[in-house]
Structures are given as structure tokens and as C-alpha cells.
Amino acid sequence: MIKNLKYLRIIDPDPTSLILEKIKIAENFFYDWKEYFLKDKKFLNDLYEYYKAIQDSNILMEKLGTFEECYYCSAIEKGGCCKAGFENEVTINILLINLFLNVKIPKEREIAERCFFVGSTGCKIFARPTLCREYFCNRLLRLFSPEEYVSLTQTISRELTLLYLIERYIRKELEFLLGDFLLEIDLKGYR
Predict the structure, then answer these.
(1) How far apart are CA 143 and CA 153, in angstroms?
(2) Any long-range contacts for 51-54 (C-beta under 8 Å, 24+ apart)?
(3) Facing residues of 83 across strands?
(4) Residues 85-126: tens digit of each pLDDT
(5) How many Å apart are CA 36 and CA 173, to the nearest integer?
(6) Which listed residue, of 32, 130, 136, 168, carries a Cα 20 to 30 Å from 93's Cα?
(7) The Cα angle at residue 87 between residues 131 and 119, in degrees rounded to 5
(8) Is the whole-model pTM more than 0.70?
(9) What residue ranges in the chain does DSSP mark as E strands?
């Protein structure tokens, strides 16, 4: 079990240092245990269903104008939700899911004072935390009819249910593989 100690480090409370540390831990887990997870057909099926659910959510969000509105609010008006520090919502497990989905994880903040994962055209990761998917501020809510809002929340609900199940599975398997010390790691990173 000495090998498992490489995952434990003192984490700097600076948001950029914190997310870089979580990325490093996720990449180590991925490198060490990728083959183990990829042998599990149920995991692969859930990952595929989750991928499709994100695509369904994105298509509907695009159709309803949420991405455009968020871009305008964030990039043009310099407001929005995706401020520096918001990346703390991204857990090690969400980073792992992105790696399993072959998403390239950024290594530096592209836009100052914005979430680490925000780029010039939006979010640079595919699997995102719950808070990033249920972000409907009053500005956005005014865009939707009641029917559109119901449709959107139902579509996103499927995505988030699958995210929860996959995250729970990864956590359970890593605890089995590495021991209960994972209970001591703060996967969100808040201090």
C-alpha cells in the first residue's frame, strides 16, 4: 500500500493550485487504474449513456439559447457564474470521468478571473459538476416558457442522475483498490 501514498499531498488553498493538484491526482488514478475500470462492461455502458445524456442536454440548451446568453453575460458583460474559484466544484471523480471520455484536461487558466475550465468558447470539459448544469439564474429563466423549463430540467435530470451513479461507483471502486484513506481526501477541495 506504499504506492497509494503518492496520492496524498498538502493542498494549497489557492484555487489554481488546488485544481492543478486535483488534476494531478486524477491523472495518477487514471494512469494506475484505467485498465481496471475499462474491463467493467456496466461502467462502460453507464459512461456511454452519460455521454449521450450530456449531448441531449447540450442540444436542448443550445436550442433554448442558454449557451449564447451565458457567453454574452460572462464574456461581454464580464459577469456570470463562472468566476475564478468556481472550479472547486470539479471533483477528482469528475476529472476522471472526463479522462475516461477522452477529454483533454487544461493545464492552465485561459481567462483571468474566470473558472479554470472556461475558455474563449465556453467550458473546456465535457462532464461537469451538478452546479454547472443547474445554473438557471433569473436572466436565463426569463428565456424559457414553462414547458421549455420542464423539458430542460427533465433532460438535465437524467444526465445528473447518471453522473451521480458513475461518481459513486468510481469512489467505491477506488476505496476498494486503495483503502479507506480516500475518506480522508477532500475531493471537492474546499477548506
Answers:
(1) 14
(2) 51/101, 51/126, 53/155, 53/158, 53/159, 53/162, 54/126, 54/127, 54/159
(3) 114
(4) 889 899 999 999 999 999 999 999 988 888 899 888 788 999
(5) 10
(6) 136
(7) 100
(8) yes
(9) 118-119, 122-123
Kindly give, in sequence order, each residue whose CB lies less than 8 Å from that of residue 135, ignoring residues fewer than 6 positions away: 70, 81
The Cα 164–Cα 143 span in angstroms is: 28
In the chain, what are the helix, strand and coil shares in percent, each to the nearest 5? 65, 5, 30
Residue 144 has phi, psi (to 5 degrees) of -100, 145
Report the amino acid identity of residue 166. I
Query: For the chain, what are the domain ranges?
Result: 14-181
Total residues found in the chain within this entry: 191
C-alpha dihedral (82, 85, 91, 95), degrees to nearest 10: 60
